[in-house]
Structure formats: structure tokens, C-alpha cells
Amino acid sequence: MSLNSTIARVTDRIRARSEGPRTDYLARIKAAGDAGPSRAHLSCGNQAHAYAAMGQDKDALAAARAPNVGIVTAYNDMLSAHQPYENYPQLIKAALREIGATAQVAGGVPAMCDGVTQGQPGMELSLFSRDVIAMAAAVSLSHNTFDAAIYMGVCDKIVPGLVMAAATFGHIPAVFLPAGPMTTGLPNDEKAKVRQQFATGEVGRDKLMAAEMASYHGPGTCTFYGTANTNQMLMEFMGLHLPGSSFVNPNTPLREALTVAGAKRAAEITALGNDYRPAGEILDEKAFVNGLVGLMATGGSTNHILHLPAMARAAGIILDLADFDEVSSVTPLMAKVYPNGLADVNHFHAAGGLQFMIRHLLDAGLLHKDAKTVSGEGMAHYIQEPKITPEGLTWVDGPVDSQNEKVLRKTADPFQKTGGLKQLDGNLGRGVIKLSAVAEERRHIEAPVRVFHDQDDVKEAFKRGEFTQDTIVVVRFQGPKANGMPELHSLTPTLSVLQDRGLKVALVTDGRMSGASGKVPAAIHVSPEAADGGPLAKLQDGDVVRLDALSGELTCLTEGFAERAPVQPDLSANQFGLGRELFGAFRTHVGPSTEGASVVL
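C-alpha cells predicted for Phosphogluconate dehydratase:
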């Protein structure tokens, strides 16, 4: 089928909008690529320093005739998703020796867990860590001794930061190696029920702790469809993973075989061979539009409304909220994975997963089938799934039919006809709302507001029984300039309880919500943010606000609202403690959320 006209129009608009910066970007990476293998330009002293500790690989490195692959790793053993990476470097080096190539760990990047910092001061460093990761990866690769790079990262800010680095070093190929999700534990709906029971005082902390430990129980990503697993989906839709590799569990033979295959593929696509695939050419307009389609079709994380524009800017491409909105308008929601449903990513993968989804999106004309990928030309590679046979790892045709239509459906019979995100606009600014888990009757609310400057104050008001009528909860001064734009996911149980009591409630904020948030309508990333003089800073308790996710309206209806002076709160408490004092320059220079909330781009 020919390409959908809306997808084609959005792609053309992005291409036209990006013409200047993209042209400059491609010229830069071409010049870097034309300079040839980097090691040829290093002095003997430079190279001796680089190879001194490489043991059996030293002679091959000094000869500089075979590819040398740089490994950028986010390994640590506090994050379950990154713990499996501990032994990847040795596996990769052994695999590359088999084909006469070499590998070195170029460096590590920080990897923090939003699950650990949720509702804590450390969360105020979370979004900024993405830019730190990009810079740390750039330092890792600045030694200029690598013909390709392998990026090992999974979770929320790590993959976007690594993509920003891969685009910056766009003259060398980039292969992303996932670690996979942990096996299924306590069902997500049961965990959510215990969280709500704890919020209302029905159960104690012992029951809550038992439920959480039964849910997050082993190596691998959390199994709900939040930002980490959305990252993995994007890497397949954007052609940076090997096909079918995103959701294979850690410490399995197939996971190890895919790691070996990914390492060898990185060596095969360098400028030293006949299939040169620089990262900057893969990360083009088509790749980012395919990523937008994947985000909508799966009901993915709202955090990528921030990350995708930042990732794209690193490759000279300019995305706008309108692009998300229009792609969503024609992309059917094909998956129901928690928090959008009861299933987890293991159930999604077993039902047919990304290969089923990509097949049917291609058939419907909703993806650019001719996109360049690390696996070859075109997205047809990504309807194949990996299998281990007696002859070794191979790829076979993926499923045509869903194995569980409660989890995964074809484009012709989706869970809803449009994707999971909607742009909001009005006299309160521009923002977005995730709809894939919000019931239709909750997508329009017109109610008085309660204004807060701290999420803990919302919880305290709840405990005092102050929410007795339909209410729009406004939590402002949560944007990147104010305090780093923390996630406000810890409000979800509280607001869910109010909703379950029959009240119409919503959240409006210039902050973020977790990729795991869903059933409470939330207007997030509102820009301009309150700390930058945005309209949210003019709201007062009792003002009536209309949030209409159907028409895309976010408006204060109270007369005289626009003429008020914005509130100027004391934000000094956000400046110090747990490393926040080191990020003052980030808060000062960060860009708006509509452009990715980046400091470095």
C-alpha cells in the first residue's frame, strides 16, 4: 500500500522545516567520514596510550586494518535493567575476535532510575541526566579510535541521551544492544490496587513493600509499558536494534546470541567494509516519523514528547508538537499493555510483539518502508523475528495473526482508531495529554482548580479530606527552569482514588508524568512554564479551567485571568541537596519543553 497521505505530509513538513540544520549536519558528518578511519590520523604515542592495556588485541589494534568498535555502557547493578550488561563487553570482544575485529569499552555513562527517585528530590536531576549522558558518551568517543559504536542502555533518559551522542558522532555506525525485560512478576493491576489501598490507609507499608518486591523482582526492565520499554520499541522502529531483539529476557541463549550478532553487525557496517551505514544517515526524517508512529500505535510514554525532539535536533531535524498530534490522528492504537491494559511487555511480545505490529503498519501504509536501518535497506527486515536453530541464530517471518487479541490487534480492528497522544492549546499554553488509558467519559472536564507548588502538598490536602468536588489539580513550578521537571507519578494513586470515588479530576502541570501513568487525565509539559512567566503562574484557587482532550483545548474561563501578574514563588529549596547545586547552569540555560527541554541542543 502507498504511504498514508498524512504521514507523507508530516514527513515533508519536517523535511522542509529542517532543511537548513539538516543540510549543515549532513555536510559535517560527511566530512568526518571522508577523513577515513580515525586511527590512521593518530600519532604513535596517541595509539600506544590507547592500546596499552589491550593484551591479545594489541597487535590487531596497532595494525589498524580491521574495525575497532567502541562500547559505551550504562552498566550498573543498582538498576535491574542495566545489571545484565555486566558481562556484555567480554562477550562482544570474543565475538569480534572471531571475525578479526576488536572492541574496547570507550567509557561509561550515568544511569539513574526514576523508580528509585520517584517523589524524591533526586528526581529533579532525572531529565538533566539525559544531556549529561549525551556529553559523557561524547567524551567516551572523543578519543577518535573507533570505526563503529555499540551503545548499551535501556531506561528512561539513558537511551535518548545515547541517541543524541550517536547522532553527534553520526559519521560512525551505531548499534544499540538491549538487555530485555525481567520475567513477569505480580500482575500490574494487583500492584496498582495495593498502591491505592495504601494511599487510603487500608493496608500498611508491609503489604505495599511485599507487592512492590513481587513486581520488581529480577534482572531486566520493569515489565509495564513505561519509558524504558518505549525506548526499546523506538530503537526497533527507528532501525537501530537488530530485528526482534527488544523484548527478549536477560540471561537466555537467545539474548546472548542477539548480543553476539549485534556486535558483529557493528563491525560489518563500518567504512572499512562494503556496507557503510553511518548513524547520521539512519537517523533521518523517515526514522523519526516511524518512531512517532510506533509511539502512537503502542500507547507509549509521554516522556518521548520531550526526548524525540531532543534526539532529532542532534541530527539536524526539527520536530514540533503538531507532528505528534497529526501522526496520532491517523495511527490506530494496536496494543493494550499496562498502564493502558492489564498485560505486560512479556505478554505483548508473546502475542506477536513488534514484528506483528510493524508488519501491519507497513501493510496499512503507516510506516516508511524504505527507511535505512542497521540491518539493511527497508523496514521489511523488522517483520522477521530471531530464532535459534541447530545451525545457529537465524531470522524467520514473524507472526501474521495476533496470539492474544486482548493485548495486540491488527490496524483494521484496533483498540481505538487514533493513537495515544493529543496536543493541547489555549490561554494556559501548549501541552499534551496521553489518552490511551483515559476512559472516553473522562476526556473532558470543566472544573475549579486547586493550585499547588509541590506534589507533597497535594497528598497532604488529600489526607485532610479537602477534595470533595470535581477538581482540576494544578501543580506548577515543576518545569525544567524551576526544578528540572521531575515526574509527578506519585500523585497517580491519590488522584485515582478521587476518580474512583466518582469525582471528575484532572492534573494540569508544567512538569512530567511517568510513562506508567495513564487513567487520570493529565495535561503535562505545559509551556511556557510557570517559572518562565507562563500563564500557569497566574492561576488562583477557584478559577474554572476547561481541559478538553477531544478538541485539544486547555483554557482558563475566569474573567480577568490574563491581566493578572504572575506569581513569583521562592524556589530556593530546589537549588541545593543531592547534587542539585551542581545543576544550576542547567536550570538557567535549559530550553522549553516544546523543543525537548535540552541544555546542550
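The CA atoms of residues 461 and 467 lie 7 Å apart.
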